[in-house]
Structures are given as C-alpha cells and as structure tokens.
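Here is the promised in-class demo. Please do not try to memorize the tokens; focus on the logic of going from shape to residues.
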C-alpha cells in the first residue's frame, strides 16, 4: 500500500491503480456502523476526494458482508446518555452515507456481498453504481425491531425502488437477494459471488479510463436536473456544459474533437478519446 494511505480504526483503504476500495472494517460485528466507523468513513472519503491517484471509489465491507446497519449497541444504546456523542455520530452518519457520497466528485460503486441491512442501504443508494452478489441478503429490518427506516433510509429507498416494492420491503421487513435487487434495479446488476470483485473491477476500469472532469460534471448534471423543471434544466445544463468546457484541465472536448474530426483516430460513439 502506498505510504500516503491513511490508517483508520474501523475502515480499511486499499488501492488497485486508480481504483480505491474503502472498506467498512468491523467484520466480527458484520460491519455494523459504530460512531467511530461513521467518523472514519468521513475521513476516508475526504482523503479519497483529495487523493490524486484515486479516480474511482468502491465501497464495500470486510469479511464477506457489506453492513449490518447501525450498531444497535454503540450507535443507539451507547449514545443514549451521551447527547454530544449522539449529535456527533448522527452528523457523521448522515454526512458520509448521503452528503459526501451523493456529491462525490469521482465515480463511486457499492460492491455488496453478504448482509446489507437498514442504515446500510443509504450508502448503496448514494453511490453512483451498485453491484451485488446474487446471494447477497438485503433487508429493511427496522420494522422488525419496532422503528422506522429513518436517517434518510425511507427517502433514499423511494428514490430507487418502485413504490410498491419500497413499501412492501419496508413494512414486512422481508429480505431480498442480490438477484432480486438486480431485477428490481435496486442495484445495476447482480453476479455470482465468485465473480463479484472481477465484475466490479471491469466497471471500475471502464470509469477510470474516462475523463475525470466529464465524469464529475455528468454526475452532477444527472443528480441536479431531477428536481428541476424543463426550463430550469435547460438553463442549468447549458451553464454546466459551458462550465465543463472552461474548467476541464485536460481540455478533453478539444482533444476529442481533433481526434474525431481532424485525425480520424477515434469514434466517440464507440469509446473514449485518447487522453
Ligand atoms: N448492531 C450491533 N451488533 C451487531 C449488529 C448490529 N446491527 N449486527 C450484528 N451485530 C453483532 C452481533 O451482536 C454479534 O456480536 P457478538 O459476537 O458480540 O455477540 C456479531 O455482530 C455477529 O452477529 P451474529 O448475529 O452472531 O451473526 P449472524 O451472521 O448469525 O447474523 C445478522 C448476522 C443477520 C446481520 C444479525 O447479526 C442481525 O440481524 N443483525 C442486525 C441487523 C439489523 O437489523 N440491523 C439494524 C438495521 S436498522 C438500522 O440500521 C437503523
């Protein structure tokens, strides 16, 4: 591992070229999210955002599971008599799982294996892409212990699932498999467990090869236009288009136009330009 990778208590960082794995690392607790894990995830994402080598981030869990949701002992019971820690943990939990991930300037992929429960749904949804093992087990288990899918889970779930599926799984607490998650488009696709890393890396390498500025601006554009009227979207996208043209340090558009129109060395319909 490169010397500049930070060391954290509940989160592990691993690199594979421009692809950085950020790994929830409490395998003995099925990666249940403790206050410390939330704070570590904020630090890890901060680090990866600033790290020049990182082009794509993969969020996953150690020990064969993604995440068993909030740590019921440390996050809930453990903060009951410590309002300051509760505020800090809540803020960090929301910050990395939604704010940072959903506005992360580089491509993000959730790689889900094993269990993924409750609060573990939020980062899966906030990532740009999600790939699951066929036999992964998802569950909105909140109802099973008498609470609601709070902390943005219910909101996030209705962003990606159809309403019937969202309400069915939230109210019954039934589990669904990675394969079912793929069929519902909760994840982009599911693959056999033994192929999970390989398939995720194929997507990661594809994203790594793209222009970082085009990836960043495209992500921002897609996320922002969803809440806009057609008129606002047109205006916003025009401005965004111009902003990318001005701010792309690689001047990708100019290079690509030259390669297609003058040199005839590349076809934009069939792949990316030579950077
Ligand atoms: N909070 C705290 N500890 C947890 C959690 C959790 N969410 N999930 C697992 N653990 C701990 C267990 O208490 C156990 O600790 P111990 O070894 O000290 O006894 C250890 O992790 C291993 O868990 P087991 O239950 O023994 O593992 P198993 O593989 O049999 O089952 C499963 C895994 C299904 C994930 C089970 O642990 C479970 O149901 N966990 C809770 C899932 C959940 O509903 N999470 C909350 C969602 S709601 C929310 O996030 C707000």
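The designed amino acids, position by position:
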């Amino acid at each position: 591992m490169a010397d500049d990778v930070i060391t954290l208590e509940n989160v592990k960082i691993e690199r594979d070229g421009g692809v950085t794995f950020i790994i929830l690392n409490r395998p003995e607790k099925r990666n249940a999210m403790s206050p410390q894990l939330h704070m570590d995830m904020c630090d890890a994402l901060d680090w990866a955002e600033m790290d020049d080598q990182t082009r794509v981030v993969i969020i996953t869990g150690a020990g064969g599971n993604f995440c068993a949701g909030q740590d019921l002992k440390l996050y809930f019971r453990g903060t009951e008599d410590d309002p300051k820690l509760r505020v800090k943990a809540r803020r960090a939990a929301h910050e990395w799982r939604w704010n940072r991930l959903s506005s992360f300037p580089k491509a993000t992929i959730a790689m889900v294996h094993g269990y993924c429960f409750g609060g573990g749904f939020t980062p899966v949804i906030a990532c740009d892409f999600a790939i699951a093992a066929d036999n992964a087990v998802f569950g909105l288990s909140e109802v099973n212990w008498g609470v609601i899918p709070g902390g943005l889970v219910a909101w996030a779930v209705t962003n990606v699932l159809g309403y019937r599926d969202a309400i069915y799984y939230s109210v019954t607490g039934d589990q669904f498999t990675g394969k079912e998650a793929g069929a519902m488009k909760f994840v982009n696709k599911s693959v056999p467990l033994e192929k999970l890393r390989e398939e995720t890396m194929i997507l990661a390498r594809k994203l790594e090869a793209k222009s970082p500025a085009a990836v960043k601006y495209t992500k921002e554009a897609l996320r922002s236009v969803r809440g806009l009227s057609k008129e606002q979207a047109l205006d916003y996208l025009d401005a965004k288009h111009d902003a990318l043209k001005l701010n792309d340090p690689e001047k990708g558009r100019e290079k690509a136009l030259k390669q297609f129109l003058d040199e005839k060395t590349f076809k934009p319909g069939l792949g990316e330009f030579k950077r």
